[in-house]
Design brief:
The protein is of the alpha/beta class. It has 9 helices and 43 strands. A hairpin with a 2-residue loop joins strand 40 and strand 41.
Length: 657
């Protein structure tokens, strides 16, 4: 049984290990992205990492769970030992033991050999910053007293152009057959390898060419596994009076056994318990639930592979074993897909491995969210049959469906959010999802969604940001007060207040998040500029005093140095801000979505409409109008119902309908 004391001891042990290794804390939408970021920072591979969960997020299954994770990642001790060994090898290499494969640059090379009665040369061109072959060195090396002819012009040409890895004939010499190199072939009894032993040629004797070696071993019955690369190496740099392997058996490849590749974490020990700020283990945050949706792949069976037979060098077959098959571990609410290998979920819920079988538990359903249930944090779809009362929150990795109303609450989901009634946020409510929000009405609430906001009645005094569209479709579809951002479209019946006393601002045609970030940066840059001006004034005052007095008291000298350091830091920060501002402005200029605001009823005076970066302040009421961008201005056109989005589709994933 796991006790708190045992858990505490285990954590202390882990802490002592962590102190000896380098760790990084990263945040991202999925664990995989966290690990990828950590791998870059630690300069290693993802598979080399181990990690601890700091703040619970989602595993990123099928793109539905992107709730930010915060993890502490580090390399395993075994990998660190391997890296240490590699560093030692690299240090040894820098001291003169660098292999050819590690060299970035290489000088040109040449080989001169005599095959039969002819002289042959092979020239390899330099690599990188290497030096080319010296023509005079090549010609002088090729000259010998027993030469009968030598084409030195051809040698000079080849020194520059190379021979493309081949031997090229360049002359003749006085060949003495009795001095030829003698080749002996030795074949192992098990026919697994063949070696040659070559005696050094005497004066006037011929060396062994690649063709000569291959033909000789073939006459000895070698038909498979001939190592041509090694034979070429031998020809270039002969090894005399020693056995040299020129053929090796083709080893059989045994077939891999069938296996199951799981698309979720099967080891619950890798899902870390969450700790509170004082180091206590929070058993309310177990991080053990992994959400999936119906039809989602959970695992794939990799079929057993047939073995590939090998061959001895004499052509005799070497038997290979075929891989063993296994059964697919189907459990509750899972099935095999049409391909016969993929396990998919029959229902939405969270997946786990129980008794070696893949099981899916269904969605979490409650009659209401209140003091009886507390906050709900669930890696799956949550259905609330009643109301979500003030002060209680829902966090879900799937969809959230609420059949009642929502008060001053935080509703966060990775899927769609459907609220059958409305939201009374009381200026503190918050709703967020990367997908779409459906609601009857929104009042005094902050909303941030990655796709659409669809409302039946009204949006009142709310800050709403949608990366695509905001659509009000009901008979009382009205926007009254607040700030609404949408990249593509805002559509309603009436916009603004009849008296014009409530500020209503609509902005379309750009990326709302980028725009908000741009506004933040510009405010920060303005404040930073003022701070720089003050520091410049202080520096100027102290420097003028120093010029007059030729020196400053110690405390003022220290203050001057401090101001100069602060100025350098602020200038650097200002430059970084300017770069980010320019990047965002370029992104907003390149944005293809122009954006429009549609009103089938009335847009009341006092309403402010921004399309891209251009502003249009409505001074008098206008009816049945569309605001759009044209040649640097906001233009108004007649409302055209055929150009307005009618439907954004139904919620994805689980639905009780």
């Amino acid at each position: 049984m796991v006790t708190l004391e045992k858990l505490r001891l285990e954590m202390e042990k882990q802490l002592s290990i962590d102190k000896e290794i380098h760790t990084v804390v990263v945040c991202a939408d999925t664990v995989d992205e966290c690990l990828a970021d950590a791998a870059v920072q630690l300069e290693t591979k993802i598979k080399n990492l181990e990690y601890e969960v700091i703040e619970r997020g989602c595993g990123g299954i099928m793109g539905l769970m992107k709730k930010p994770w915060k993890i502490r990642a580090y390399e395993s001790s075994s990998i660190l030992q391997q890296k240490k060994k590699i560093m030692e090898e690299q240090l040894a290499a820098e001291n003169g033991e660098v292999g050819e494969e590690k060299q970035v640059s290489r000088d040109g090379l040449f080989y001169i050999h005599r095959f039969g009665a002819h002289i042959f040369v092979k020239v390899l061109l330099p690599v990188g910053d290497g030096k080319p072959v010296d023509v005079n060195d090549l010609i002088n090396t090729a000259r010998r007293p027993d030469n009968l002819s030598l084409d030195e012009d051809l040698l000079a040409k080849l020194a520059v152009e190379g021979t493309n890895g081949q031997y090229v004939e360049v002359g003749d010499y006085n060949h003495v057959n009795a001095g030829d190199a003698i080749l002996a072939v030795d074949i192992s009894k098990d026919e697994m390898s063949a070696t040659i032993t070559v005696s050094r040629p005497s004066q006037g004797g011929s060396e062994l060419s690649e063709e000569k070696i291959i033909n000789t071993i073939k006459t000895q019955g070698v038909v498979a596994g001939i190592l041509e690369d090694k034979i070429i190496e031998f020809v270039d740099n002969p090894v005399y009076d020693m056995p040299y392997e020129v053929a090796a058996a083709i080893q059989p490849v045994h077939g891999a056994d069938a296996c199951i590749e799981y698309m979720f974490e099967t080891d619950s020990t890798k899902l870390k318990l969450k700790e509170t700020e004082n180091g206590q283990v929070d058993f309310k945050e177990l991080n053990l639930i992994q959400n999936v949706v119906a039809g989602q792949p959970l695992a794939v069976k990799h079929l057993a592979q047939r073995g590939k037979v090998g061959k001895t060098i004499m052509g005799r077959l070497l038997e290979a074993k075929n891989g063993k098959d296994i059964a697919i571990p189907l459990g509750q609410n899972t099935k095999v897909d049409k391909d016969g290998r993929t396990v998919v979920a029959e229902k939405s819920g969270h997946v786990m491995l129980v008794g070696g079988k893949i099981c899916v538990e269904e969605v979490y359903e409650v009659p209401g969210v209140n003091i009886k249930t507390g906050n709900i944090t669930y890696m799956g779809t949550v259905i609330c049959r009643g109301n979500v009362e003030d002060g209680f929150n829902i966090k879900a990795s799937g969809n959230v469906e609420i059949y009642g109303s929502v008060g001053n609450c935080r509703i966060e989901a990775e899927g769609d959010i459907v609220i059958s009634q409305g939201v009374m946020g009381r200026d503190e409510g918050y709703i967020s999802t990367p997908k779409t929000l459906w609601a009857r009405f929104l009042q005094n609430v902050t909303v941030k969604v990655g796709e659409h906001v669809v409302v039946n009645d009204n949006i009142m005094n709310s800050n709403v940001t949608a990366m695509k569209k905001i659509l009000l479709k009901g008979k009382r579809a009205q926007i009254i007060g607040g700030k609404l951002f949408a990249t593509e479209e805002i559509t309603a019946k009436n916009i603004g207040s009849t008296s014009g006393s409530i500020e209503t601002i609509l902005q379309v045609g750009y990326d709302p998040e980028k725009k908000q970030r741009l506004d933040e940066l510009q405010e920060m840059q303005s404040a930073l500029t003022k701070q720089l001006e003050e520091i410049e004034m202080n520096i100027s005052t102290l420097e003028n005093q120093k010029k007059v007095r030729r020196s400053l008291p110690k405390e003022k000298e220290e203050a001057l140095a401090k101001y100069r350091n602060e100025r350098s830091e602020l200038v650097e920060s200002s430059e970084k801000m300017a770069d980010e501002i320019n990047e965002i402005q370029e992104r907003l200029r390149e944005l293809k979505a122009v954006g429009c605001v549609n009103a089938s009823g009335t847009v009341y005076g006092g309403t402010i409409v921004y399309v891209r970066d251009e502003k249009d302040t409505v001074t008098t009421d206008c009816k049945s109008v569309t605001f759009f961008y044209d040649n640097g201005f906001v233009k108004r056109g007649k409302y055209d119902a055929t150009q307005v989005t009618e439907d954004v589709g139904a919620p994805d994933g689980y639905s009780s309908n």
